[in-house]
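<discrete_fold_record>
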Amino acid sequence: MAHWRDTYRPARFFFLDVRAGVIVLLTLLWIRPWTLVLAAASVALAWYLERLGLNPPGAWRALRSYLAGKDRPALPFHKIRRPVDFGRRRMAWEKPAPKGDHYIRPLPKQK
């Protein structure tokens, strides 16, 4: 009988994580050459990932992190507020915009 402290350990089928063994079970239900190759490849991949110290959920997280890249903003793209140009028009008493090369003039010092 198993001890209570073994309840958190991952379920294993011989040397393989059970989540990776599901493909082996599906191969046994529908035996075809391509399913045998798929099962062998998935067992080899699961064994390699376990040698690296990753279980299947950890491998998915690592893949997702790799695909997301280094720039991960705190907000989703559609919630990021972008700068808006409201098309400010000059008032009648303001000087017209300069023609030709545009440059930024410093503001005059207020007294």
Strands lie at 12-13, 16-17. The radius of gyration is 31 Å. The CA atoms of residues 39 and 50 lie 16 Å apart.
